[in-house]
Amino acid sequence: MINYHPTLAVLTAFAQGDLEDSISLIVASHVQMCEHCQQEVAKLTEAAAEQVFEQDNLEDIEPFKETTSSSLNMALSIEMLDDIMSLDVDGTAEQSNFKEETLTEGLKHLNQHNDSYEDALNQSNIVSQNARIISHKDGELPLPRALNSLNAAPWQGVGKVSRARFQFNDDERRLSLLKIDKGGQIPQHTHTGIEITLLLEGSFEDDMGRYQKGDFIWLDKDHTHSPITQEGCVCLTLVSDSLYFTQGFSKLLNPLGKLIY
Amino acid sequence: MQLSINNFGTDKENSIATQPQLATDLCVCLDLVAQHKDKKAFTELFHFFAPKIKRFGLSKLNSDAMANELVQDTMTLVWKKAHLFHSSKGAATTWVYTLMRNTCFDTLRKIKHKDEISLSDDIWPTDAEEALADEADFKDHLLNEKVLSYVDNLPLAQQSIIKGVYYQELTQEQLAKQLGIPLGTVKSRLRLALSKLKQQMGDKYHD
Predict the structure, then answer these.
(1) What's the mean pLDDT when you consider all of chain A?
(2) Domain boundary among B106, B126, B146
(3) pLDDT exceeds 60 at position A259
(4) CA–CA separation, A3 and A18 (whole Å)
(5) In terms of residue numbers, what domain contains B94?
(6) What CATH number is attached to the domain comprising B80?
């Protein structure tokens, strides 16, 4: 049972493609594990689509009236249409006349389409279950699908804590797998930016609660915590590169800080 | 039967609120594009969607040229992938929205991070079949495209086999592993798909 989810605001921004890339990756990873959020995202996407496409108020928008250059002018439209439809290679160009027959046939196909959709759905479930596997020293686990295109650096560890960083181009945040062995603990810490944790395997607890597989925990600079795990856990973490931890002082005193961040 | 698609986006009286017909019309047009590459239907879709995509693009990308590119890229996907739209799964507008959002997301990545890897399909998976049919691998071959248009008419399960074996050049064993299905299933689907293709192409060439 997943108890901790992204907020509605985060899910809305996710559905609209407005989150930072790295945050989208970790939110997507949670959504893949969480049926509740899948449904939410589906609803929010539908709402976003309605807002963009079904409120027919284009003519009411002043900038479009005034600057013809910013609207899609007729010549460009025609050029684009020709361009796109010239991608047609199967020689059915002459079928441009709408006939009643074509329409009926179209509707018939629409139904057939729906039948084969079940097949396709089953098929795609099979494919998505076939996730990339990543191994760690105590076993292996399937990676969230959102990370399919990313490479992870080898595991590095100090004591019971190890991490594998994803090679991902985000100046502000770092995305890693974090593994804490049985009975491991991370000393009390705080950060100047954000720390997002998605629990992929196992469980841990901190001052605020107990977390299980699939839980999504978003902390900011107002939170201080010291996670501890009885059974061990593997998390996906996204942490802003905190100034505090990059300075010499904390590096010397706290090699763990450097490892995690 | 009179189809009202000619009025897309032009007749304000027929706005979506008063015209539930619109959703059906969009679905019918998409299906005509999927099944027949029907140009009239696509033109209707274009006139409905393009100005709205343009507006969306301007707000996200802040550039007229890039907004136009978004229109072109998104509508190209509609043209090429119409067969992947299923009205049972949701509204046509939602489907086009996801294509547009994903394209826009990857465009922004390119601008902001100079990163060419497209992540949107991993973040918002639409259809796992698409991932298998990586078009980049074969898009420059006219013959392949011709064959592909027939492949696209196959049931999706068979499509993925054909594309895996012939376009990605996977062995049948690799493909079985990748799809998580028994080798025997791969073989039988391949046989079925090939005989269907033969039939279709034969029909075409003997017309």
Answers:
(1) 77
(2) B126
(3) yes
(4) 25
(5) 4-126
(6) 1.10.1740.10
CB pairs A-B closer than 8 Å: 212
Contact between A185 and A226 under an 8 Å Cβ cutoff? The reply is yes
Whether residue B24 is found in the same domain as residue B102: yes
Does residue B49 belong to the interface with chain A, where contact is any CB pair within 8 Å?
A: yes
Q: Which long-range contacts (CB under 8 A, 24 or more apart) does B162-169 make?
A: B162/B190, B162/B193, B162/B194, B162/B197, B163/B132, B163/B133, B164/B132, B165/B190, B167/B133, B167/B134, B167/B137, B167/B138, B168/B132, B168/B134, B168/B137
CA distance B140 to chain A (A): 11
**pLDDT at res. A157:** 86
Tokens 């945050």 appear where?
Answer: A23
Domain boundary among B126, B153, B169: B126
Tracing tokens 């009239």 back to the chain, one arrives at B40
CA atoms within 13 A on the CB side of B48: 29
pLDDT per position as a tens digit, B52-91: 999 999 999 999 999 999 999 999 999 999 999 988 878 9
- Pick A122 or A80 by higher pLDDT: A80
Q: In this structure, which amino acid lies at residue B72?
A: Q
Whether the pLDDT of residue A108 is over 70: the answer is no
Whether A50 contacts chain B with CB within 8 A: yes
Distance from CA of A84 to the nearest CA of B (A): 6
Tokens of A161: 């804590």
Q: Are residues B93 and B41 in the same domain?
A: yes
Residue A238 has pLDDT above 90, yes or no: yes
**Residues in B touching A80 (Cβ below 8 Å):** 46, 50, 68, 71-72, 75
CATH number where B175 lies? 1.10.10.10
Q: How confident is the model at residue A71 (pLDDT cuts 50, 70, 90)?
A: low
- Read off the pLDDT of each residue in B99-118 and give the average, rounded to a whole number: 88
Residues within 8 A of B (CB atoms), A 56-75 only: 56, 58-59, 61, 64, 69-72
- Contact between B34 and A109 using a beta-carbon 8 Å cutoff: yes
Q: Is the pLDDT of residue B94 over 50?
A: yes
Q: Token pair 């970790």 is at which residue?
A: A26
Residue B140: is its pLDDT beyond 90?
A: no
Clarify whether residues A49 and A84 are in a common domain. no
Q: Is B40 on the interface with A (CB under 8 A)?
A: yes
The band of A63, judged by pLDDT with boundaries at 50, 70 and 90, is very low
The reply to whether B122 and B134 lie within a common domain is: no
Which residue's structure tokens are 């949670």? A30
Among A91, A106, A127, the domain boundary falls at A127
Of A123, A126, A151, which to mutate for an interface test with B (greatest number of B Cβ within 10 Å)? Answer: A123
Q: Considering only residues 117 to 146 of chain A, which have any Cβ-Cβ distance to chain B shorter than 8 Å? A: 117, 119-120, 123-124, 126-130, 145-146
